[in-house]
Every structure is written in structure tokens, then in C-alpha cells.
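User: quick one - fold this with adenosine-5'-triphosphate bound?
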Amino acid sequence: MRFAPRRRKRVPAPAPTPQPQMTVSKYLPFLDELTSTSMWRMATRLPRLIGLALGWAWRADRWDTAATIGLNLAAGVFTAVGLFAVTGVLEPLFTGGPTPERVQAALPSLALVAAAYAARALLQAGAGWAQARLRPQVERRTELHLFDLTSRIRLEAFDDSAFNDTMYRARDRGQFEVSRVITSAVDVLTGLVSIVAAAGVLAVLHPVLLPLLVLTVVPDGWAAARAARMRYERIRELTTGRRRKWALGDMLASRDSAAELRAFTMRGFLIDEYTRISDIERAAMLTVARRQTTTRLVGEAAGGVATAATFAALGALLVTGAMPLAVAGTAVFAIRTAQASLATLLFSLSTTYESGLYFSDFLEFSRQAGGRLPPAPDTEPPGALVEVRARGVVFAYPGEQAPALDGVDVDIRRGEVVALVGENGSGKSTLARLLAGLYTPQAGAIRWNGADTAGMDPDALRGRIGLINQEYAQWPLSAARNVAMSAAADDARLGAAARLSGADEVVAELVHGWDTVLDKRFVNGADLSGGQWQRIASARGLYRDADLLIADEPTAALDARAEKRLFESLHAHAQGRTVLLITHRLASVRMADRIYVLDKGRVVEHGDHARLMACGGLYAELFRMQADAYTHTGAAPAEPPEAVVAEPPRR
Ligand SMILES: Nc1ncnc2c1ncn2[C@@H]1O[C@H](COP(=O)(O)OP(=O)(O)OP(=O)(O)O)[C@@H](O)[C@H]1O
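Assistant: Sure. C-alpha cells for the protein plus adenosine-5'-triphosphate:
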């Protein structure tokens, strides 16, 4: 989806100097927040995170979840059985006596080993299949949950950069980690079963072996978890930069910016900027890699020392005769097996821990987004419009000190055409969005037939309002869908809206008519000129046939004929309905019932055209400026220039 170009609030091209959000210092707030969550605290949160992830999986598909857990656990049990059976093989082999008898004595256990490992292989295959089925289902569910929230949260959320970071982290990785948490948590459970088995064997052989064994693996586990956390911290710090890089990448590879990129030779600048952020990212990740390697080396060295101590203890037990050779042989096998199981367990734990960190990003997004949903409606849904009143409305965009609207009063009554005029940035579009129920005032109120719109069901309110947006979206959908939007596409209504807006002429030229996809990136797609798109956007607002039509700069890209036609349509449309018109073409608001003049977020004048002209204020000044531009011809040339009129082509 693309958005129509806008005169002022376009996404600014990156300034030639480095943007502050691309320097590492800007990332520090996240670090502060993160360092307060210690590794231990995070580890204690793991069981809950695993529980939550399992809940997601269960809701996605309970059978596959149950099969994933059940089959993996059963496979773990057979690993344990195999281990016990191996000790049954080794013991007779290491005891004295003739070899054929020893081998014969070991045969039943050997058969058990083979059966156990065969069963484990089958169960693991089944578990793998269940896991493979579960993964896309969980991802689909989390993705839909994410988009359900992003499409319902209040519009202001999209102006909050911190929230955008949270949303990016959830979209970029968090949402995909649920299934990884589950997979690694199941591995932890399976590993635990094997460990319990190996520990059982070791405890039976000699009590000192078990604690020694634990010591051999703990340093490695610590190193793995610490390395995972380092990586996560760095990636989290880099969120804003990565988001920025993503936006730059989009500009480098998108059709919308392709023309300006070339016209303004932005290629070098964008690639430099992209490279600069990539370098910051690369330097940060290289530092992490270095620190991770050191940590792992420390962990492995400590683990090596502990392993040596374990085998030294085993040797001491042998030398002192505290342990017979047959038992020692079994112990060596059990120690190796247990070490492998413990290492797998700790690896799974560290993966669970790492995935848990990313999954908590997703949970954090869900929590924050949940807090940004519109409150549950506590008033009746809005009835047919009689009157809309804004009183003392104050609104500041997130992160902005100065309010965009500061104590605004406006009245709109049924059947009226009300106009908002004022210079760029005076607050007209912001006010229109508040009146359209897209933003909520921070002080003051907007009342629809006397009831505060803040307590109304936003969708019910918006259903009564048609919007011709200044920043209309260019949806990669058919022309019919671009006009009807979420409503059913009705031919008669499409035709009427198209006639009123001038979109009929646009659609008549499309090869597939209303069915043409308005996006060149798709097969048989078509693109429109700026003015043609604007006619489609106007038809969109008119199609809804709502009580209140808000038209924000509906003619900025239209030619003179189309502009005249649209203003006539809007005035005709107002018969029995209501129109709020925002425009810089002041000639078109002369007929408005009431005109509000905004300046720096305040209403500085209001009244009809005659009254405002008589006051000689800002409106009169702006109106005269425009009128002069049409009437002032300057010094007349001695001889009027000859007009050249092209002949129509002969057919
Ligand atoms: N999303 C935003 N975040 C922060 N500030 C914003 C945002 N949108 C608008 N503003 C600021 O709010 C003020 C009012 O903007 P608004 O778009 O309402 O003006 P306008 O009168 O419609 O201007 P124009 O005639 O240029 O369309 C301006 O100072 C603008 O920079």
C-alpha cells in the first residue's frame, strides 16, 4: 500500500548530517531497562514464559501440542531405558570369566538397548512431525494476533517512536519465537528425563559422581546463557537503527521513491547512510562475538577442569579399591552419556532463555498494544447526526511539547457546509481527524448529539463519517475495492460516487474497469496520475454516503474542471447531509455556512465569508492574496502575445 504524496508532512528525506537516532547513545534507554532485568530474574521468569508459549501452542492446535510434548517425553523415557540397558551390557562384559559366557550374559540387555533406541527413533520421528505441523500454526496465530492489535490500537500509537520500536521487535522476531520457545522447552523436558536416568545410574554406582558431573556442565551452561543474553542486549539496543536501516532499504528498493531517488541523485547518500548504520551494527555485533567467544572459552575451561576432577575422582576410587573395575567402566560410560545429556539440556535451556527474551518482546508488545486500545464504549452508539460540537479541544502529538490544537471550539449542524481554513501547520487536518474519531482529545470534548465521542464505539462512530483524507492510501486492490473499501461493492453506488467525484472518467479508461488492480507491481496492474488517484479517494469518501463527510484538501491535485465539479458535488451532497471542508482554495469556501480560521492550533476567526471579509483579519488577508493572484495582470504588454492553439488531430 502506498500513500498519496502530501505537501508538508511527507516522510522527510534523511538530512545530510547523521540523525541522532542512529547513534549508539540513543539506544541507551533500552539498556537501562534491560540491565534491571538480571539473568537470574529472567531465568525465574522462564517457567512462566514457557507456560505462556505452551498456551499459545495449545490454542493453535491442541493435538499437535499434546503430540509434541507427549512423544518427546516418551522418547526421553526410552533414552533412559536404553541407558539402563547399556549398563546391563557393560557390567557382565567387564566382570571376569570366559568371554562367550560374558557376551551371552550381556545379550538380553543388548536386545533391550536395540529395542529402546528403535522405539526412541520412532517416537522422535513422530514428535518431529508434530512439531513441524505445529510451528506454522503457532506462527499464523501469533501473526494474526499481532495484526489484530496493530489494526485496532489508537492512531496516536503510530506517532510514538518508542512504541514503534516495540512493534518492530515484535514483528521482526518476537512473534516467531513462540514456537522456538516450545521446541526448546520440550527439549529441556526430554533432556531432564535423560539426566534423571543418568543421575540414577551414577547415584547407584557412587554418590560422589553425581555432584562432580553437575560441576562439569554448569560452567558451559552459564557461558551459553550469558552469550545468548549478550546477543539479545545488543540486538535490542540496535532496534531503532535497524528500523531506520529497514526504512532506508525500503527507499532504495521501492517503486514509490525510485523516481525521486534518481531525480535528486540520492543513491550515494542513501547507500552511505545505510552503510553507516550497517557499520554501527556490524561493530556492535563483532564486539558481541568477541565477548561471546571469551565467555564461552572461560566456560569451557572451567568445564574442562571439572571433567578432569571427575575422572581424577574416578581414578582415586579405583586405586583405593572403593570401586571395582566393572563398575568404573560403567561409570565412565554413564558419565559420558550424562555429560552429553546435560550439555544438551543446558543448550536447550539457553535456547529457551534466548527465545524467551525475544518472546517477551512479543508479550511486551501485546501488553503495550493492549493498553493502547480504545476503551470499551460506555455510551450509546451515535444516532443520526444532528449536531457535532468541539469544546476546548486540546491535542498534542506523542512526544511533542506544543499542542497541535489548543482550546478549539467548533460547531457543525446537520445540512451545513462548514469549512476549516488556515495556513500550513495551523491544525486543520488534526482537527479533522479528531472530529472523524481517529484521535481523542487530551482535554476538552467532542460531542455528537450531546454525547462525548470519547466513550463511543469508534467503529460505530466512524461508520457515520465519510472521509476524503489528505493522505489517502493507494491500496494495492481493485479500483472497486479502492472505492467501496470494507463495504460491499454495489454497482449503482460505485457509479454514483464515481460520477460525483469524477472517478467515472478514470475507471472508463482502465482496461479491466472497476476490476483493475491499481498497482503496477502486480500483473495487469495499472497506475494512476496524482489527480486520478485523488478522484478515486474522493469517490471513497462519497461512497459511504455518511451523515458527515469530512473532505480534507480534496482538490489539491485536481485540474480546474475536476475541481469545480467536485466542489459542486460536495455542495449538492450537503443537501440533507453535512460536509466539513478543508481547503486552501478559498474561493470554494465562500458558500460555506460557517468558516473557522485556524492559526497555530487555535480558532482565531469564524463566521461566514461576508462577515470574515468585513473583519479584515487573517481570512480576508489570505482571500485577497489569492484573489489578487487571479486578477493582477501586471503591466499590460504593448501588443498582446499571439495565442497558439493546436489543431485537433485529423482522423
Ligand atoms: N503525526 C504528527 N506528529 C507530530 N506532529 C504532527 C503530526 N502531524 C502534524 N503534526 C504537527 O501538528 C501541527 C498541525 O498539523 P496539521 O496537519 O493539522 O496542519 P494543517 O493545518 O492541516 O496543515 P496543512 O495545511 O499543511 O495540511 C503542525 O505543527 C504539524 O507539524
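One thing worth noting: The domain at 21-370 is CATH 1.20.1560.10 (ABC transporter transmembrane region fold).
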